[in-house]
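BUG: 3D viewer hangs when loading the predicted structure for this chain

Environment: internal workstation, default settings.
Expected: structure renders.
Actual: progress bar stalls at 90%.

Input used:
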Amino acid sequence: MNNSLEIFDLTIPEHPELDTPDVSVFKQNLLKQVQFLLEKDINTLWNGLYRIDVSENKVKEIFLGVPDSSEVASKLCEVIIERLIQKMNFRRKYSSNSDEAL
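Structure tokens produced before the viewer hung:
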């Protein structure tokens, strides 16, 4: 699992009937964790967003543009997952390029 999510103490659970991870359960768990951190430990949330390398401008837009804290958590989850997907795609792209060079 991606080390950048260690701060949220989450793993992607395996779906019992599929060979692939159940991302919907991951999203639900991530949302719960982000909501908890918003309410109880905002500094840990900020540190986690920084470690994942979520755009600071996107985070500021969310906090300034969304009045409801549950909606803030949902939007933060979206940008976290978006950033993780970007990082996975970059890793795939560059790891496949290095394999072709061999």
